[in-house]
Amino acid sequence: MEHQSFNQQLLDFLHQSPTPWHAVQQMTRRLDAAGFVALEEADTWQLAPGQGYYVVRNGSSLVAFRSGRQAPETAGIRMVGAHSDSPCLKVKPNPELQRKGYLQLGVEVYGGVLLNPWFDRDLSLAGRVSVVDQDGKLSDVLVDFRKAVAYIPSLAIHLDREANNSRSINPQKDLPPVLMQVGEDEEVCFHDLLAEQVRREHPTLSFDRILGYEMSFYDAQPPAVVGLRDEFVASARLDNLLSCFIGLEALLAADGEQPSLFVCNDHEEVGSQSAEGAQGPFLASVVERWCGAEVMPRAISRSMMISADNAHGVHPNFADRHDENHGPLLNRGPVIKVNHNQRYATNSRSAALYRHLSDELGLPHQTFVVRSDMACGSTIGPITAGTLGVTTLDIGVPQWGMHSIRETAGVEDGVTLYRVLEAFMNRPQVN
């Protein structure tokens, strides 16, 4: 797949995936179209060699795998992992704030959000809503307002002369977005506004009331290819939906001869400690049911996980924030991420395999190590390695503006990583 086609499909995926639930919905549609079979965790599984399967938990995490025509205990499993969540602003349970004739919503900061870029942006709302019908039956639906429905205005420089020098952001006070103007005696309930949207998007759904929701604000500006020479992709949620797209496409492109798997976990941005997060039992449970409890340790010993999560590309205005010998550049190849304190799970063997695959294909790669005087971030890589005991590599596409409302990556790097992961999925021996 050449990079123009790859990036157009990526932009479409990003645009249709404002939340983890929407991202997983998009991925399951791709899997269904490719002939993968949906499995329910509550059911008994009967798996056939050479078939594709997928399992969804909480609607926001997914494990998809090809059973392969080779046995997992002899061939090992080629695994790729990513995460479906991104830092954002989530609506509180009782969010209504009516002040000075404006309706605002209280928000909770999810993950390590870079807050300043959220001001003066066109914001929309999306998420999952739980409803109950007149018979007491509960159901979940996805909602996406799609248009700009909210705004967080900056305070004018005339009213804060130090804004460019020392302004700090109070999430409780400064971040509630403005939705609309309201009359002096008008009382507006967010549940009512949300119910109207549910009815617009799901006109055949009959429900009595809303009992819960998980709604997030997101940037309403569509993803785009930018740059005078179209060198960059700019979008919300590149961290880490870009890796989700790459991992899924690599699995779909695999020939199915070797056992292969793609996992997309929710809640990485807040520590992964949840039923569907990487610290939970989801992946291990699927692998055990696939292989069998007795066979699983043998399969894992011959397997490898590639944890794909974006890397910090050198910012030309802040080049000194990188180690001078480890400053990845956009459009110069995916980045092998190394941290000997195990914030990344890469070791010499897993890095060597990636370099070998990449070199065989004639594709570029880079290496990142954080400055020795700075703290290092982490990924699902060390968590998965520790949970499964699987050899793991941490790698990612270099980007700017990580955890901003709009991030930037190179148009070449995503398709480069896709090509190497496709080769990895088809490789007869991985460990």
UniProtKB/TrEMBL annotation:
Cofactor: Zn(2+)
InterPro entries the record matches: Peptidase_M18, Peptidase_M18_dom2
EC number: 3.4.11.-
Record GO terms (molecular function): aminopeptidase activity
Alphabetically ordered keywords of this record: Aminopeptidase, Hydrolase, Metal-binding, Metalloprotease, Protease, Zinc
First-tier enzyme category under EC: hydrolase
Family: Belongs to the peptidase M18 family.
Name under which the protein is recorded: M18 family aminopeptidase
Organism ancestry: Bacteria, Pseudomonadati, Pseudomonadota, Gammaproteobacteria, Pseudomonadales
